[in-house]
């Protein structure tokens, strides 16, 4: 899939009380994440004038985060399909929306205004969310992947995205905006929509999970647990330019033992001069970068201290493996 630099792994077997250790393919690839919805999402509403009266869809109990699934009984899954159905209904100046809200299907009336062949409804909408992250691992045995390691906050609704469909794609890092104190840096990457890597089946607090497509030539590595981690030197694997995965040296400074799934189990400092020179530490787009210590995959990068960009946090790999196994069990059932 990608060329991996500076990695030599000797693997051995260990066990854990939470999950049996397993062999997976090491990630580190920058990926494009495209999340799709079970309908067209409403991200907001605005007021317009219809027949001399102010109208806002919110007055008809139409809310942000509602998913429009049908217009006058016709299924819609994209903005293009929604626009077509609203155009057909425009002569009647209203349409019945079928909306999914918190797992419940409801009906709401929407007024439509047509001006110079342009439809106005008072709705702000989208049918996908795009972002950049890092692949953590691929499980060859189950053909599943894990990435990101944390929730995705919707830029429009400011709430955590919970979804079960989408695609991850190959991406190339074109530049990096360096982190500064109190200002997060960012990878700028080009998503190759012609090269899908996997199908997303779950997006939640612990990241993005799904089924891999195609094959990968990445090296195999044994997973570890929080009991295997110790203070001191470790590495993260991530892309700083194009599609070349690099080993970045870090120093683990604190281990927060956890009995249940949670985030920020690992605290570390970036000590790699090359990474500090290029990005000044952890930047947006590195989330999901695998953390390796003593030839074991033990975690994934998740957060950065914006006041000190060379200080980062990670999630224990066992929590990602648990999510992957839960997803595999659900599919099998």
Automatic annotation (TrEMBL):
PROSITE patterns for this protein: SPOIVB (PS51494)
SUPFAM superfamilies, per database record: PDZ domain-like
Alphabetized UniProt keyword annotations: Signal
InterPro entries recorded: PDZ_sf (IPR036034), Peptidase_S55 (IPR008763)
Domain Peptidase S55: 102-333
Signal peptide stretch: 1-21
UniProt-listed Gene3D superfamilies: 2.30.42.10
Keyword field contains DNA damage: no
The keyword Signal appears for this protein: yes
Protein's UniProt name: Stage IV sporulation protein B
Originating organism: Dielma fastidiosa
Organism lineage: Bacteria, Bacillati, Bacillota, Erysipelotrichia, Erysipelotrichales
